[in-house]
Amino acid sequence: MDERRQYVRLDTRLKITYSVIEKGKESSLQSETKDISGGGIRIFLGDSLPEGTLLKLHIVLPDDKPPLTV
After folding, report:
1. How far is Cα 26 from Cα 36, in angstroms, rounded to an integer?
2. Which DSSP string corresponds to 3-56?
3. How far is CA 42 from CA 13, 22, 25, 36, 37, in A?
4. Tens of pLDDT, residues 29-47
5. What's the CA dihedral at 16, 24, 52, 5 to 10 degrees?
6. How far apart are CA 9 and CA 30, in angstroms?
7. Band of residue 14 on the pLDDT scale cut at 50, 70, 90
8. pTM value > 0.85
């Protein structure tokens, strides 16, 4: 079977806080990652979001590394 993925996908769980970026408001929600690759990150969400929705992510990294905000 041919591998069609451009990047290796890591099935890993990291705690995150995410916010939907909208004009004039920002509310934070807690979740975790499902997997991460060089092409993106998949997170568990309570609701679906439209394609193109801008998010702010605060990712808690393992081994006492500083959190990553993107």
Report:
1. 24
2. ---SS-EE----EEEEEE-BTTB--EEEEEEEEEETTEEEE--SS---TT--EE
3. 10, 21, 24, 6, 9
4. 999 999 999 888 999 988 8
5. -20
6. 22
7. very high
8. no
Joined together, the tokens standing for residue 67 give: 């959190």
- Cα–Cα dist 67/16, whole Å: 9
Which tokens hold the place of 49? Answer: 């979001």
Report how far residue 44's alpha carbon sits from residue 39's, in angstroms, rounded to the nearest whole number: 17
C-alpha–C-alpha distance, residues 59 and 33, integer Å: 9
The pLDDT mean for the chain works out to: 87
The residue type of 61 is L
